[in-house]
Design a protein that fits this description.
single chain, alpha+beta, Aldehyde Oxidoreductase, domain 3, five-stranded antiparallel β-sheet, elongated
Length: about 130
């Protein structure tokens, strides 16, 4: 189990390869920045965070998911800093014995990250305007 807050791009192709023979399912989620928000063209997003608290909380979420859904392994990475349209801002992957637990565990992790992490998002539009979320 590993939760990470990072500024670097996320390379999902190298993450969470099954290492145990009892892995029967790998479920992944990638949150990708769209090029529009509320019908307005985005230049980029800026994510700010309390990195220390966010790292602690993301790892708590992974442990909760492991216990609740019986996951074998999980990883969650959330970007901070500038993230452009087409780039991944959130990556979650879980290994489980069966697909139902994998899907349920992955959904739990994504929803909990969105609700609980001290991460804030600022939309930067091509017209120069900005908006915090």
């Amino acid at each position: 189990m590993k939760g990470v807050i990072q500024r670097e791009s996320i390379d999902a192709s190298k993450l969470l390869e099954p290492r145990e023979l009892n892995v029967g399912s790998t479920v992944t989620f990638q949150g990708i920045v769209r090029n529009t928000e509320s019908s307005r063209e985005l230049s980029h997003l800026f994510y700010d965070a309390d990195e220390k608290l966010a790292t602690v909380e993301i790892n708590k979420i992974l442990e909760e998911a492991k216990e609740k859904y019986g996951l074998i392994d999980a990883i969650a990475i959330h970007r901070i800093g500038i993230v452009k349209p087409g780039e991944t801002s959130l990556f979650v992957a879980v290994n489980s014995t069966h697909r139902k637990e994998g899907f349920d565990g992955c959904k739990f992790i994504v929803d909990a990250i969105k609700e609980r992490l001290p991460i804030w998002k600022k939309d930067h539009f091509v017209d120069g305007s900005e908006s915090w979320h």
